[in-house]
Automatic annotation (TrEMBL):
SMART domains per the UniProt record, alphabetical: acidPPc (SM00014)
Chain intervals with Basic and acidic residues compositional bias: 59-75
Signal peptide stretch: none
Location of the region described as Disordered in the Swiss-Prot/TrEMBL record: 1-76
Protein's name according to its UniProt entry: Phosphatidic acid phosphatase type 2/haloperoxidase domain-containing protein
Nucleotide-binding in keyword set: no
Record's keyword terms, sorted: Membrane, Transmembrane, Transmembrane helix
Domain of life according to the entry: Eukaryota
Name of the gene: PLPP7
PANTHER family, sorted: INACTIVE PHOSPHOLIPID PHOSPHATASE 7, SPHINGOSINE-1-PHOSPHATE PHOSPHOHYDROLASE
Length: 287
C-alpha cells in the first residue's frame, strides 16, 4: 500500500513537471517580476502607511498653522511698530503736554502743593465763566439808556452765546478728558463745559478782552490789566487741573476767531433795538 502511494505521487510530480503544466506550479508574476499576492499586500501596506502618515502630519500641520497665525501681528500693531515721523511727533507733543499739565495742576486738590490757594484761583476762574458773563451782560443791558451802549451789549451777548455753543459742540465732538479726573461743577454743567478741549474759559476771556479793547475807550493801564486778566483766567483752569496747556492755547485761538466772526456779522443799532423790543414783548410790526 505504501509503495502504491509513493508511485502515484511520483507520477503526479512527473506530470506536473511537464512544460505545459509549469505555470500551475508557480505564482503569476507582475510586470516588475514580483508575485501578484506580494504586490497586493505591499500595496495595502503602503496605503496603510500613507494614511497613518497623513493622520500624524495633520496635527503637526494644524499646530504649525496655529503658531503662524498666533505669531502673525495685526495691522495696527505693525503700524505702531513702524510709525511715521508725523505720528512720532504728535505722540511726543501729547506726552509733553500731559506731563507739563499734570505738573502745573498745583491747585487741583486741597492736598496739592498749592492747595491753600485753590479758593483764590477758583474765584479768578469764575470771573471768566460763561454764566457769569451772560448774566452780567443782561443786567447791564437792562440798565443801559444809550443806543450805542445797547448796541455794544447786544452784540456782546450774542458773542457770548456763540462762544458757549461753539465750545460745547467742539467739546462734545473731541471728548478729551482733563489731566486730572474731576467731576464737573454745577455751573460747568449748566454752561456745558464738561470736557477739556478746548478751554471754554480761555476762549471766553480772549473774546471778551478783545471785544472790550475794540469797542471801549480805556486807558493804557486798564488795557494791560484786561489782557493780563484774560491770560490769568486761562492759566487758572490749568492750575486747577481742569485743562491741558494745549486746551488753553486752542481756547485763546478760538476766542479770537469768535471775535472776528462777530465783527463780520455786527448788528446795527436798529437791529439791536428790534431784538430788545422782541425780548421785552414791546415790539410792534406796525411802528
Amino acid at each position: 500500500m505504501p509503495s502504491s502511494v509513493r508511485s502515484r505521487a511520483r507520477e503526479r510530480n512527473s506530470v506536473l513537471g511537464r512544460p505545459e503544466f509549469m505555470s500551475l506550479n508557480h505564482q503569476p508574476l507582475c510586470s516588475g517580476g514580483a508575485p501578484a499576492e506580494s504586490r497586493g499586500s505591499s500595496r495595502r501596506l503602503g496605503q496603510i502607511k500613507h494614511q497613518t502618515s497623513q493622520q500624524s502630519e495633520e496635527p503637526t500641520d494644524r499646530g504649525s498653522r496655529d503658531r503662524r497665525e498666533s505669531t502673525k501681528m495685526p495691522e495696527e500693531d505693525c503700524m505702531q511698530l513702524n510709525p511715521s515721523f508725523k505720528g512720532i511727533a504728535m505722540n511726543s507733543l501729547l506726552a509733553i503736554d500731559i506731563c507739563l499739565s499734570k505738573r502745573m495742576g498745583v491747585c487741583a486738590y486741597t492736598s496739592s502743593s498749592w492747595g491753600g490757594c485753590r479758593s483764590m484761583v477758583a474765584l479768578l476762574a469764575l470771573t471768566g465763566h460763561g454764566i457769569t458773563w451772560i448774566i452780567g451782560t443782561i443786567v447791564c443791558l437792562t440798565r443801559s439808556n444809550t443806543l450805542a451802549g445797547q448796541e455794544v451789549l447786544v452784540n456782546l451777548l450774542l458773542a457770548l452765546i456763540l462762544d458757549v455753543m461753539t465750545v460745547a459742540g467742539v467739546q462734545r465732538l473731541v471728548k478729551r478728558r482733563g489731566p486730572w479726573e474731576m467731576t464737573p461743577s454745577f455751573l460747568d454743567c449748566i454752561a456745558m463745559d464738561v470736557y477739556s478741549f478746548p478751554a471754554a474759559h480761555a476762549s471766553r476771556a480772549a473774546m471778551v478782552s478783545k471785544f472790550l479793547l475794540s469797542h471801549l475807550v480805556l486807558a493804557v493801564p486798564l488795557r494791560i490789566l484786561l489782557v493780563l486778566w484774560a491770560f490769568l483766567v486761562g492759566m487758572s483752569r490749568v492750575l486747577l487741573g481742569k485743562h491741558h496747556l494745549t486746551d488753553m492755547v486752542c481756547g485763546f485761538a478760538l476766542g479770537m476767531l469768535h471775535f472776528s466772526l462777530m465783527e463780520t456779522v455786527w448788528l446795527s443799532s436798529n437791529t439791536c433795538q428790534t431784538l430788545i423790543s422782541i425780548s421785552t414783548l414791546s415790539w410792534s410790526p406796525f411802528f
